[in-house]
Structure formats: C-alpha cells, structure tokens
Amino acid sequence: MKNASLFEPIIEADAPKVRVTFDGHNYKLPQGMSLAAGLLSAGLRSLRKTPVSGAPRGPFCMMGACFDCLVEIDGVTRQACMVEVREGLVASPAGPKEGV
Amino acid sequence: MKKYDLAIIGAGPAGLAAAAEASAAGLTVVMLDEQARSGGQIYRDVERAAPTRGTILGEDYLHGLSLIGATRAERVTYMPRTTVWDITPDGELSYTRDGRADCLQAKRLLIATGALERPMPLPGWTLPGVMTAGAAQILLKQSGLISRRAVLVGSGPLLYLVAVQMVRAGAPPLALLETQGLIVGPARHLPRALMGWRVLAKGMGLLAELRQAGVSRHKRVREISIEGEGQVGKVRFEAKQTMHEISCDTVLLHHGVVPNIQASRALRLEHDWDAGQDCFRPRIDDWGRSSARNIFIAGDGAGIGGAIAAEHAGRLAAFEIARDLGRMVVAERDRRAVPTRRALAKEHVVRPFLDAAFPRYSEALADDTIVCRCEEVTAGEIRRAAALGCTGPNQSKAFNRAGMGPCQGRYCGLTVNRLLAEANGASPEATGYYRLRPPIKPVTLGELAQMKQPDGLEKTA
Amino acid sequence: MDADYAIIGGGVVGLSVAYGLTRRGLRVIVIDGEDDAFRASRGNFGLVWVQSKGMGAPHYARWSQRSAAAWGAFAKELSDETGYDPSLQQEGGYDFHLSEESLADKVAQYEALKLELGGDYPFEVLGHNALKREEPAIGPKVAGAILHHQDGHVNPLLLLRGLSDAIRKAGATVINGDRVIRVEEGCRLTLASGRNVMAKKVVLTAGLGAKELGPELGFRAPIRPQRGQVLITEKLPKLMNRPSGIIRQVNEGGIQIGDSKEEVGFDDSVTVETIAAIAQRAVTVMPELSNAQLVRSWGALRVMTPDGLPIYQKSETMPGVAMITCHSGITLAAAHARFLPAWLEEDADAPDLEKFSEKRFAV
C-alpha cells in the first residue's frame, strides 16, 4: 500500500541511496537508515499481516519494543526498526503471505 | 568467557554517565546496547543528527553530545547492535550480536534500559499509521523524517515537545487532542514544583510556540477512536460535548512513559506499585542497588525521572559499584555523591506535579478494544478471564494469550493489570504482573543452540 | 452443608474431576490458589500420550489407553457445552531417534509391553525415508521414529479454560486466590482467608501442594517436583503433521519444544544451559527450526511420584477424603472426568485403582 507522503524527509539525507527489495518491489533508500523508517519514507504503511486475524500492521514504537514492524530477512523474522538499510537488502512481510 | 568488573545494559544517559564514572574509577566496563549508536532513545543518534537538525530538536537534545564520549573511554568496551536475551543473578549475560550468540560475565550489573511508552489502547490503535509520539521523535532524530498530516493524542510534556519540534521542522501537527483535565487537583503540588521552575518555564515556552504557530488544541478530549480502511483515515473524538472528526494519515499517541521492567522482572527482583506514577517499578536503594546485591538499576527503568535525573542516577550507581569493588573509598564516594544528589533532587522536585497534571487517559475501555496487540486480545476477553476466576495476569494469559506474543507483554502488561484489578476489585499490587522469563528479547533457536555446553544434554536426559 | 464435594486444587486434575462430578448432578466447590502458584496445568506440554508409559506396569499403560480412547468424546462434549474446543488431534505421535541402536532398543521394549497388553499397542517403526515422507522437515541425522497410533495432543490451556467454564455453567462454586490451611473431621475446611467450607467429601488435587496438606489428611503423598523446561517459537506455517514427545506444533502455529527432566526442588527457573541443549536437539531433528525466533520459555514443575505413576488413594484416617495426583493430567483428563466419579462415589462399576494406591511405596 503506497502513499505519496506519509513521512517525508525534512532535509535530503546525505547518505547514499541504495537498492532495497521489499515484498518484491524495489526501493532506493538512504543507507544506514532503519528499514522501517526507509519504508515509511517510501510511502508504505503496512509491513505485514498479523498471524491471528490477518490485520495489516505497520511500525508503531520504532524502538524495538512492540514487534509490530516484523519482516522476514534471510528466512528469519526481524524487527524492521532494528535493521539498517544496506545495498541489496531483500526483505518480505513476516507471517502469512498475501494470497496464501 | 570474557569477564568485566561492570556490565551496563543500555547506552542512554544513565548507562553512559555510569560508564564514564566507572571507567574513571579504574573499573573494566562493558556496555551492551541494542542500537547501532549510543544515546538511548532520548539522545538517539545525537552525534549524527546534531549538525543538520540540532536546532529543530533543541538544546536539551544536544546535551547528549556531552555524554557519548563514554563509549570511547578507557577500559570501556562498547558493544552496539547487541541484544541481551538472558541475565542470571550472578552476572552472566547471554546476548546476540550480528547473528552470533555469546555470553560474558561481570562482577556487577547495571540495568539502564530506560522507559517504554505507556500503552494507550484505543479503538483503532492497531491500524497502520498509528504510532507512539516517541516513535515520531525517533523518526525525526534518527532519520530526519516527519509526518505532514499527523494528529497528536494524549497528555504530557513530551506531547508538546513533539508538536513544537514538528512546528520547527515546518510540518505542524493538524491538531493536539489533549486528554488531561483541568489542573486543579495537581495545584497542591504546584508550590514544590515551582522549585523546578526551569521545567515549568520550558513547558510554558512550548505552549507559546504552539500558539504562535496556530496549532489547534482540543482539551479534555474523550471518546477517542481511530478509523480507516487498512490504515488511518481519521480520528473521532468528543470535546466540549461535541463530536469532532479530523482526517489525517498519522496518529501519534502518548500519555506518559513507564519503566521498562522486562529485565528486572525476568531477574525476579522486588518491584513495588508506584501509585503516583501509576506503574510498577523495581525496588532500589538510594545508590540504585536492587533487591539483588550485585544488580543496580539507574534511570527511567527504576522510576520515571527524565534524562538528566537518569544521568545523575547512573553516576551514583557507578560510585557505589566502584566502592563495592574496592576502587573508591567510602569518603570519596560520599563526597562525589553530594553534588550529584543535589542535582538529582532538583530533577525530582517537579515530578509529582507532572504526574498529577498529566494522568493517563483513563476512559473505560470498550469490550471490543484490543489490549494485547500481538495476540489481538480485547478488553472484554480480559474481563471474561476475571469472571472465570483469574486473579492475576498469569492466569489470564493462560486463558486468552494476552502477553504471550513476541512483545512479551511490553504493550499490554499494565492494561491487563488494570482491567483485572478493576474487574476483581483488587489493588494493582495484589493483581501483580506477568512472570517474565528468558529470552528477554526473542532469539533464534539456531543462535540459542550455539550456546550449548558439551555436557548440556545430560541434564536434560 | 455447602457442597457434596470440596475439591482442593483447581488445576486440570481438580477441574476434570469436578467436571465429572457436576455431570452427575453433584454440588461441587473448587478451591484454587494464587496467580503465582506452581501450576503444572499452565506449564505442561499438552500431549495426550500413550507410548512409553507403563513400561513394566501394564496397568498404567492400560489406564492411559483408556483415557486416550475416551478423549475424543470428552473433547467434543466440552466443546459443545462451552464453545472452547481444546483442539484435540489424535492421529498418532512420534518418538524420534538419532541412532539405529536407540530405536531398536525402544522397539524391543515396546514389543515386550505389547505382549503384556495382549497385543493392543498399535505402533509402527518408520526408517528415515518413511519418516521423511510423513514429516518432510526432519533432518538427515534422524535415524527414524516410532509412530504410535494412540497418541495425540491438545491445547492444554483451552482445555483448562473449557473446564473452568463448564463447571461454572453446571453450578459449581470456585473460590480463587485462597488456600486450605486445615481440614477437620467431617470434611470441614478452613481457608487462609478465614472462610469455612463444609462438604460431604473432599478430593485433594493440589498438585505439589499435596505434599504439605496430604499428611494432614492421612496420606503419605510421596511426591516431588521435577522441572521441565519448555520453549515456544513465534507462529510458523505448518511444519509438522503429528506431535512427538519433544517437539510439537501447537494449534496457534508456534513450535513447542521440551522438555527436560531436572531434579532441582521447587525452582521453576529457566536456565540458558538447558534451553540451549533443548534448542540444539530440536534443530538437529528439524534443521529449519534454526531460523525460528524463540519468544517464550518456562520451567514447569511436574508432580512426580517415586515410580512416576499416579496415586489414587482414599484416606484411611479421614473418611470421605481422597487424593489424586499424577504428572499426566492432560492425558488422564478424560479418564478423570469420566471414570473417577464412579470411584469416588463407590459405584459397582468403578474402575479398579487398587494398584495405584500409595501403599505400593515402602515406608
């Protein structure tokens, strides 16, 4: 789910932008930014669906406490707010996948 | 196993200040922190953010620059990106760093894990686009990001600070929905609070800035609900006997912060109910020593006092730990403690006023409001557990799974406590809290398996 | 008289018996403890398990089989009455082996038990390849497994909740957060709160609490705690088709792994040394689990007797008082609900539980 402007940069980040793949889509995100922040700045809101009801969830606390921003990286569930953006990072929503 | 005099968990103000003092006293220190850079949540990324957005974030934030040098101090081993997932009472820490699990041992332990936002369950608070006000601050500090169509909801000084930072960044919030009542009851705390005039004056300054920017403030707001299809679309509320509706795409919640007690609970340290701050906190003496002799707690994790108080508490703990390990004589410890205690007292003086002026949003939760975000358990289910005889959150958890998800009760514990206490007519203290056990944060089975000792299986037969 | 029966202990054993008694129209009061009491009913593994039980004690194997056979109807009844379905799955269960030798040893033991049971012990041996077809997630180091067709598993917490709900619906009274401190002649109970309860009969189902209270009521209660540490992962897509004695996928999706057998007294802590060993074993059996996040662990204290078998005992000094204690309260829940009321009421068709008397233990 993409939106034009959920979270915008107040000043252009000085870090180089690198390629990140999330849920099959490619993004250019500032290197070193948390993945959750990067995806929010790219217009995403929901990062996954819950395993209980299938409700959409996005980043909530941004400090590694709420476990709402869960994504899957290399087969492991991670908190997107605790992962830094790096070139070639591939992530997907944690838990039940769309259409499964 | 690597051994240290002191292990500090958390590189926020308390941890950084303690590391500096302990290092100066000659102790070997290891400081483990989950984040990639030191500063904790309050001084998040201060070194990187200061040059570009220091003016937006303000002077109090830039103060963090004076602390972060501790990570490079002599005898300090600073371990960023390190998640501690088990702590034993005798000072053994198990942690994961860059996908590798390992452990270390320290003679003394300082828990400086700070605060968490007080959970603020409302209808719709699980929708994408609803975040904590603290999260918005982190996005601003760490990533320089800001939401252009945000509504702030709740109460407390942080709410005003975030609003002002948004104004300064050129993206004022669409509105502030304030849940606190008139400042009548708290007036009795005012005379003492006036001694903390600096804090109050700062608050007045923030309000003036908001007024100047024309940010609309709704007061004594009730009946708040957040609505939208798959994401935030609007927030509805009642103010002055009228229902209002504001279209927005971000809602930022805040009604105070509470001590992060995950580690102290997992260690089964003694905790007390703090009626003034409306939360549990670990029992400590005036050096920060917990009910376990070798474990200290400093900063907001021991009771909310703010960043400056945390820094001083970290120092006091370091003095006593240095004395305890024979690196500082009693007279020296006491001499150094005098100005630190004086400064700490100054920070604490305004707290009762703030706690009373900005109480939590206490409107009764509707039965269908989710209280446990992870397992999607509603207030009604907690009340049903009480009706089935659950006197505390551990029995309730077994009946409805509230607290069993990956956040391990961080964002439901206090709500479940309150709902059960209300339903059973019991005190929060008697109702109790989740029995927390390792892992303090999730760890993969593969990482955990790396910790297996050669003789480990014998004991499991 | 407040009730026909006072049940001391509202864990799964007490609630199963209470449920059975209420179904006979008897009036029941259950007295249950504090939120932080040792509660094996909350910490158990959730198996409805037959294999490996009753080696050298075929009467225990039979009692477990009888309960397992009654479980289907018991679960359905509970679910129909309360809406809480304990998610019983009884399509067999495994005993995994990492070596051919240990597998062969176990098979020999099961064959011997099968003879003693007159052939009623339906198990089969699966080699690595046959097992891999049933459970594709098993790793290369698994030599094989015994698949026992009478085994299964449930969600023990839903069972507990269903029983709690059902007995209330049937009119039982439950006193929570209290403790029995004295029992006098004529089944007069005094609680810690000062409250008194009078009943015609008393059943002591207090788990480890019976160690203290049992002797007051004329029992030896030779029980001790045995710690089992259990791990559970985040919710995962379906990985296993059937449970094993050490790994199972719960109905909500998490993989539950256990369980150690530790003699550490009344200490229910979790230790990294043990959970690391449990994790290592699980990852060997199912390598994919290496990536799974562990979200919770706990130590539960089993209620163990010297020979590991249950005790069903009527007091010789206090008429009308009985004690029931076991470490398999989930497996035996169906038997306790359906067959124990007849034993307590001294019906002609009551099960013969003489061999489970605590007199079997030398003083």
Detailed description of the structure:
Chain A has a single domain (17-93), classed as Ubiquitin-like (UB roll) (Roll). Chain A is built from one helix and eight strands, in the order E-E-E-H-E-E-E-E-E. Chain A has one helix at residues 35-41, and strands at residues 7-9, 17-22, 25-30, 48-49, 56-57, 70-73, 76-79, 89-93. Chain A has a five-stranded mixed β-sheet, covered by helices on one side. A two-stranded antiparallel sheet of chain A has the order 4-5. The mean pLDDT of chain A is 89. Chain B contains 17 helices and 23 strands. Chain B starts with a strand and ends with a helix. With 461 residues, chain B is an alpha/beta fold. Chain C folds into three domains: 3-78 and 156-221 and 307-360, 3-Layer(bba) Sandwich (FAD/NAD(P)-binding domain); 93-149, no CATH class; 224-304, D-Amino Acid Oxidase, Chain A, domain 2, CATH 3.30.9.10. Chain C has helices spanning 12-23, 40-43, 58-82, 100-116, 128-134, 156-169, 210-213, 272-285, 333-338, 340-344; strands at 3-8, 28-31, 47-48, 93-97, 123-127, 144-148, 152-153, 173-175, 180-184, 188-191, 196-204, 224-235, 247-249, 254-257, 293-304, 311-314, 321-325. The longest helix of chain C has 25 residues, at 58-82. Classes of the chains: A mainly beta (100), B alpha/beta (461), C alpha+beta (363). Chains in contact: A-B, A-C, B-C. At the B-C interface, helix 13, strand 23, helix 16 and helix 17 of B face helix 6, strand 12, helix 8 and strand 15 of C. Strand 23 of chain B pairs antiparallel with strand 15 (293-304) of chain C.
